[in-house]
Amino acid sequence: MPAFAKRMSQVRRSFIREILKVTADPSIISFAGGLPKPDLFPTGPMADAAARVLAENGPAALQYSVTEGEPALREWIAARYKAKKNLDIDPAHILVTNGSQQSLDLLGKVFLDPGDLVGVELPGYIGAIQAFSIFEPAFAGVPLGPEGPDLDRLTEVVLSRRAKMFYAVPNFQNPSGLTYSLAARRAVAEILRMSDTVFVEDDPYGELRFFGEPLPPVTSFLTQDAYLLGTFSKIAAPGLRLGWVVATPDTLAKLVTAKQASDLHCSTLVQRILIQFLADNDLDAHIATIRAVYGAQRDLMIERIKAEFPAEVTCTEPEGGMFLWVTLPEGCSAFALFDLCIKEKVAFVPGGPFFVDGGGERTLRLNFSNADPERIAEGIARMGKGIKTLLARPGCASGS
Amino acid sequence: MPAFAKRMSQVRRSFIREILKVTADPSIISFAGGLPKPDLFPTGPMADAAARVLAENGPAALQYSVTEGEPALREWIAARYKAKKNLDIDPAHILVTNGSQQSLDLLGKVFLDPGDLVGVELPGYIGAIQAFSIFEPAFAGVPLGPEGPDLDRLTEVVLSRRAKMFYAVPNFQNPSGLTYSLAARRAVAEILRMSDTVFVEDDPYGELRFFGEPLPPVTSFLTQDAYLLGTFSKIAAPGLRLGWVVATPDTLAKLVTAKQASDLHCSTLVQRILIQFLADNDLDAHIATIRAVYGAQRDLMIERIKAEFPAEVTCTEPEGGMFLWVTLPEGCSAFALFDLCIKEKVAFVPGGPFFVDGGGERTLRLNFSNADPERIAEGIARMGKGIKTLLARPGCASGS
Fold first, then answer.
1. Which residues in A lie closer than 8 A to residue B130 (C-beta atoms)?
2. Interchain CB contact of A238 with B (< 8 Å)
3. Residue B399 has what pLDDT?
4. Cβ-proximal residues to B50 (8 Å cutoff; 6+ apart), any chain
């Protein structure tokens, strides 16, 4: 048997995707996944779009296409940046990818040599950590607080340790639900401006704001190379597997070469169905529906947590997105709680794996977008039982 | 501006895709691309399949899915190996990918460390060379003849130089159109059996045989790790971007991890549309139509070449696939011919870039699947003019 490449020894299978296998049992109420609510998917409009695309220009929709992505889709993305964020982005600077995950893979391919330092938030998005791990970097964690990242630590990682890359999710972050304040965005940009660090700003949830004013991306305060990632997974449907990366021309050329080598181009058919869907429907009205439903589910989950969990258990109260972040009292283990909760038929993701530097043992992530209100109320009640059992253990206060 | 990763200095943009931009002018008759004929795409049946999928189970078709690929699609692929080649393949050993190109990327990720030796055919498939280049291997060419690869050279590369990987396209190879004989398949397997070399057998064109008997894959003579690649691009439609790799369980687990890190999974929607299309239609009848059309176009192209090209210009006469391989007299340059032919409004791909060891200056690739018969006849006549101009040059016989 031939040896696997060295890079594979660094990469773990996604812990979350392994948990999702456990939760396939429908009697388990799962807050573990990061799944959108499927009954909100625009199934009928997508069917209409598919029918039109195949009837009006079927052969072209089934043929090979350009690596950069369908021109009409790149133009739509650029126009939306202008309309929603007043950003002037040239469609020629956009590469269409198989969801944000592929944007991360391609940025890793193009920028990361083995041993390069990559700054990530603590807790940080596991999919990004996994994507970058393939390229054998070292990771440095930057703790995330209610206003944004720890600026002293960011200064150390970016300026003293000269990180090659800093990856951030400033809006309703996965897993914490936290959002960078406007002041934090400016401060982060100020640190990055003094560096050669590649800044990767991922924004899968930005359009899912329930209240408060949208904030400009950190990238908008930068003049240097920075990469803005987006996806249709949360505003249209994740099963399309379509996202994008905005890059400067030199880097875009490299990303296109890497994309050619990786899979030639994204599905022509699915890109054209999406373009037709976007042309024929009011996306803002659709997003308003998603926001209303997710916002109500967030409110309910927080309300039930306050009713069912002991007061020493805290949680974030995000302004948008899909996740809450729960912190147990000192010394309690979220993995121990996971085992107790599976017996109660409720699941979540323990927070530890989100910390590249270790730690986070008493934290956990809850998804509020996927489950119905009845299941949210019942699931939080079941979790409350598990937490009370855990906190009654003498060991809980003294370490896991 | 931050530095790009070292790996990117090895990777060239696809020469063919650059040529395709030149040939976007519809007045140019192009034999350059590797495009299937779009009027043969099953547009209506795909529209029916899309309508059914979205009507009957739309939300699931638009949701996230498993990395391995939709179970029904993996089962279909395994059943077809049994029906067509009498191979017993467990669906659990199949990973669905974004076309063969992604299978190559994932195999490179999983197996290739910088400096590893990869054997490729001379001429060899450019997409594979590009995919593997990302992982910084060294390449060793194995010349391809009418019966198969040069076995002495293969022995040297695989056994003496202990290549980490050998990549082959035994059926109607791209770019040459050549096919390994049964004896060559056995001999290649015998050499590989004595080695730890990872054997990657790519078979995009195997179902497009115009005459003669199908031959068993080289992999069927092996008991060790070997990887069989397939694609729906040539038998259904390339715009779906769906292919697969068959692997042993340990390697499949690594490939799944690499796929998770690369893009989570292939589009759920397009996988389900394809499954429905395959369930509701007679694929063999569809492939028979493709074979009949491509076979007739191949016959016509060879007939017109014999009529229009000087006798000292030779070409392969493939039993299937999409390509012919033309060899000019000694000393003539296919790049010089390309310039002459673009003036005549006809395009092809010069052969040089298909040779990892250099050489091939007087060879070129012609695609016969995409153009209509009228354009094939007219394009070969135009090329004949260009060739006669080239051969009349005193320099042609003495080097380019």
1. 260-261
2. yes
3. 44
4. A47, A50, A51, A54, A273, B273, B276
Q: Is A327 on the interface with B (CB under 8 A)?
A: no
> Is it true that the peptide bond before A123 is cis, omega within 30 degrees of 0?
yes
**pLDDT for B209 beyond 90:** yes
* Complex ipTM tops 0.85: yes
Torsion of CA B330, B336, B341, B344, to 10 degrees: -120
Same domain, B152 and B225: yes
Rounded Cα distance between B311 and B298, Å, is 19
Report residue B21's pLDDT band, with 50, 70 and 90 as the boundaries.
confident
The reported pLDDT for the residue numbered B400 is 41
**Domain boundaries, position A319:** 6-41+285-398
Instruction: State the average pLDDT for chain A.
Output: 95
Cβ–Cβ gap B260/A14 under 8 Å: yes
Residues A142 and A254 in one domain: yes
The answer to whether the Cβ–Cβ distance between A263 and B241 falls below 8 Å is yes
User: Is some CB atom of chain B closer than 8 A to the CB atom of A311?
Assistant: no
A-chain residue closest to B165, CA distance: A2
Q: How many structural domains does chain B have? A: 2
Q: Which residues pair with B198 in a beta bridge?
A: B165
Query: Given a cut of 80, is residue B22 above it in pLDDT?
Result: no
* Residue B160 DSSP label: I
End position of a domain, from candidates B247, B280, B313: B280
Q: Does B389 fall in a domain?
A: yes
Touching check for B32 and chain A: CB below 8 Å?
no
Torsion of CA B54, B57, B62, B63, to 10 degrees: 180
Count Cβ atoms below 10 Å from residue A263 Cβ, excluding itself: 28
Q: Does residue A1 belong to any structural domain of this protein?
A: no
pLDDT at A360: 95
CA distance A397 to chain B (A): 37
Assess B225–A contact: CB distance below 8 Å, yes or no. yes
CA B281 to CA A128: how far, in whole Å?
40
Distance from the Cα of A277 to chain B's closest Cα (Å) equals 13
The amino acid present at A244, given as its one-letter code, is W
Q: Determine what percent of chain A falls in helix, strand and coil, rounding each to the nearest 5.
A: 50, 15, 35
Q: How many CB atoms lie within 10 A of CB A280?
A: 11
* Distance separating alpha carbons of residues B15 and B73, to the nearest angstrom: 33
pLDDT tens figures, A310-357: 999 999 999 999 999 999 999 999 999 999 999 999 999 999 999 999
pLDDT value for A397: 54
- Tell me which chain B residues have a C-beta less than 8 angstroms from the C-beta of A250: 1
Q: For B72-100, what is each residue's pLDDT tens digit?
A: 999 999 999 999 999 999 999 999 999 99
Tens-digit pLDDT profile for residues A182-200 = 999 999 999 999 999 999 9
- A225 and A297, same structural domain? no
- From B399's Cα to the closest Cα of chain A, the distance in A is 32
Distance CA(A314)–CA(A305), nearest Å, equals 9
Question: What is the distance between the terminal CA atoms of chain B, rounded to a whole angstrom?
Answer: 40
Which CATH number covers residue B377?
3.90.1150.10
Hey, is A275 helix, strand or coil? helix
Closest residue in chain A to residue B199, using alpha carbons only: A2
Q: Give A263's contacts (C-beta < 8 A, 6+ positions apart).
A: A98, B97, B98, B99, B101, B102, B105, B241
The pLDDT-based confidence of A29 (bands split at 50, 70, 90) is: very high
